[in-house]
Specification:
Elements: H1 20-50, H2 58-64, H3 86-92, H4 100-124, H5 132-148, H6 150-158, H7 163-174, H8 179-192, H9 199-205, H10 209-229, H11 231-240, H12 259-265, H13 270-297, H14 301-315, H15 325-328, H16 344-354, H17 357-360, H18 368-372, H19 374-384, H20 394-397, H21 430-450, H22 460-477, H23 482-490, H24 493-521, H25 523-546, H26 591-606, H27 610-629, H28 635-656, H29 663-679
Protein name: Inositolphosphotransferase Aur1/Ipt1 domain-containing protein
InterPro entries: Aur1/Ipt1, GT87, IPC_Synthase-Related
Organism: Streptomyces hawaiiensis
Amino acid sequence: MVNADHGGRPAEGFGATATGGVRTRLRVVRLGLWLIAALLAARQVTVVLATPRGERLTDLETWVGPNGVLHVNGSLYDSTRFTGTPFGGLALKPLTRSAEQALGWGWTFGTLLLVVALGLTAARALPQPVSRRTALVAAPVAISLLMLSLPVRNTLWLGQTSIIPVLLVLLGCFAAHGQRTSGLLIGVAAALQPTLLLFTPLLWFTGRRRAALATGVTFAACTGLAWAAMPHDSYRYWVHHMAGVGLGGPADDLANQSLHGALLRLGLNGPLEVALFLSLGAAVAVLALRRAVRYFRDGQLLLAVAITGCAALVVSPTAWQHQLLWVLLAVPGRVGRRASDRYVWPVTVVLVMTLPAKMILPDMASLTSLRDNVVVLAALAAATAVPFLSRTSPYYRSPLPVAYAPAVPARWRHVPLVPALRRVLTRPNLLLELLLLRVTYAAYSKVRLAATGGSNSAGRAEAEEHGRQIHDLERALRLDIEHWVNHTVVGIDWLRDFFDHYYTSFHFVVPLAVLAVLYGRRPGDYRWARSALGFATLLALVGFWLYPLAPPRLMPTLGFIDTVHGTQDFTQPDYGTLTALTNQYAAMPSLHFGWALWCGLVIAVLAQRWWTKALGLLHPLCTACAIVATANHWVLDAAGGALVVAVGFGLTHLLQGPRARTVTAAAEVSSGSSDLRKDRTPS
């Protein structure tokens, strides 16, 4: 299973026609990617080493520290703190004599080097054919993704050893010379993480039988050595704990992303759960091995290894967060016939492996089971279900192209159009859109809250000072109508109820409805409108960060009435369930008005009937009245919202070109795509 035939050596050069400009740009891009990887690595190391002792490398301290389990006279498994195999404990024993500070620095930088080696090995293992461009940028991209991933961050923070088995397997599969050396490396990895013995049948059924035998012999030798050196510990691990079951914490903990943990979280337990776990685990292992063998013979060795590793995670009794790197290695698998679908799988995997589950899926009761098991579901999908394309498929290298509107010249010569924002006429992938929408909103919410130091009280003084500045400016401009409007509306019950309901109910509903209609009926305009909304929201976040502003209802001495939340005790304010989760000082610019204005403009531009256009423009007018009447915004906040929306549309026009308005062009492109699809249908 040596990498000589299937390594990442570029199969295509630039050729004699490649220009020096292309080479220069590629060098600059590659240098930039390596710089990003270096910065991410430096940041991770800084975060770990800047953390006080006792809070960093806690697992390593638990093992080899002065009071660690490797110092005790009894069994390593008298408590559940040590989760490794007896062979792992035997390998760590020499470290117990190291000085704590030296061990911390050495362990952190050693782990960093292992991550770099893992990224380089994975980059070299990409299936042929690989373009020179991909080969040059693959290594820094792989290392950057590893640095961002939760398993690597968790490993660095805790001082875990879980990167070592993954690296040993990859070295055995792609770097070792000779099957015996390959089996030796994989056997040692299995001695550290027993479920990696699943690679033995993969080696056997792919014709690497010497490597398979060497793996089994090495595993038996390492385990036997540990048994001879620590018989009591080995008995406790292999017999009493049944290969580590129950070590490291409760098996139903959210951190245990294995099939066993998922079944326990679903409420199953006892003999029924054990029987179901064993039967499903066996089915997953068999199906995953069949798929891995098929992709191995297809020349996609890295994908075959990733599928087997994902299966090992699923069937393991416990798979803690620092052991989940196998899922990330499945990123290179290609899924989908259309070019627009190619990003769904890699983006999903990267998001699952780099972001907490609560950022990917909303906190809804109906999604709790899915959110709690998102990583094991990704591993299960990679191992058994995702239809990765074969290299023999005509769509593997040449997917169905994306339909673009005719090219247009840039607005200004020194500001070129951005290729990623080209005027696409086809409908984007719905799953990818929903996933990115959810993650973007979660990031938006976190940035809003972080703008005041993570809490509303942290930025109160500055926000109130800015509120006084805005109030004085409005008085100078004779725009200070908020107090009069607020008290007038409070005196009219039905009008107060109307504006309260409008303020709380339509902020998200209308923009989502507009996006949904555009996605279904006007896909070309959907991308145009979505880009403008994204730019406007990004600019608003900058405003929230630079200028936290207290809205009228949070100005203690001005006499405004909070019609939505009632009269406030400013020493202990209560804004409902969002009191601690939302930045109450994210008022300038007003995205309530900004998003409403975006909706109104999009409807006015795209709607065909005059009354639909009028209704669309009525929405921002009602929103402006609502935000002032409920004392949630100043008039100038609405002006700020209008400004960011205008700049958002302007940036879209500048970087993307004018909106694609020609239905004829879209129809022609769609027809051409249909003809192309017919021509390329496999016989």
